[in-house]
Fold these 3 entries.
Entry 1:
Amino acid sequence: QVQLQESGPGLVKPSQTLSLTCTVSGGSITTTYSAWSWIRQPPGKGLEWMGVIAYDGRISYNPSLKSRTSIFRDTSKNQLSLQLSSVTPEDTAVYLCNAVRLFYKFWGQGTQVTVSS
């Protein structure tokens, strides 16, 4: 059973960079055909896909967030990370990481990030 755990600061000031980490256990982020995504859910809104890093390191971003988003991984730690720059209060959301492989999908529990001065 793959388990994902998001971590990072719960409060970020406007204009700063939000940095989160997703630690994976029970599976490898380099497992063939696996894909690892960051998704967020602002309060009262639906899920928004932010980007994905595949098992082979290929990365795709949501075009609406691409200019501010970086996703990268540390295979030695089996972690993926998210950076979102120039945050505003509109970036307040629960941030989740997600793993998909073939017919399987796994979710982290999510971490609340509030952007406020």
Note: The chain has a mean pLDDT of 97.
Entry 2:
Amino acid sequence: QVQLVESGGGLVQPGGSLTLSCVASGFTFGDYAMNWYRQAPGKERELVANITRAGDNTIYPASVHGRFTISRDNVKNTAYLSMRNLKPEDTAVYYCDVPHLVRGQGTQVTVSS
């Protein structure tokens, strides 16, 4: 079964850090680029990070550039999203995604004091 399972979400104070994990199964993980998206209530889904198959190139929007880092371990079939200096506006459900193949169920990140 093709599947992505996220974990690592939670409640964090502004300025804090959090690392999300996304474990893949049912397909050859290293053959695909990976994305992390987020969606806040009442807002459109936003791409926050992209990484190539080999992990040698990444892309971020201006809203998270310099604060978020995407990485992957193709041996462990896992992608990561490390987030630092978190802001209340980063509050959302975060999803990992393989384009045109599968998306995870999401993990909630709440940034609040």
Note: The chain has no helices and eleven strands.
Entry 3:
Amino acid sequence: VQLQASGGGLVQTGGSLRLSCAASGFYFSGYWMFWVRQAPGKGFEFVSGIHPRDGTTRYADSVEGRFTVSRDNAKNTLYLAMNSLKSEDTAVYYCSRDSWGTMRGQGTQVTVSS
């Protein structure tokens, strides 16, 4: 199983980023997929999740209305569009097969400067 997140970077408060996660080594279309994040000095935090087939999504209260999760099963790719970014969104973002981040891959750093 491989999960490789990309698309992070440095952005100013109020800016936007789009993260991608390339998945391989398992049947991507059969699993819920999640984004989790880890801020400096903190544990893993659930960000968002998406159903494998019907598009049902879940969001943490802290990102509801600002972040949008999506997936392309044909490309085995998970996405996270992040808008109206805040300094508290600064973290390493991971895609994961579970909402706790125990089945995560390589992360991508997102830094929001004020």
Note: The mean pLDDT is 97.
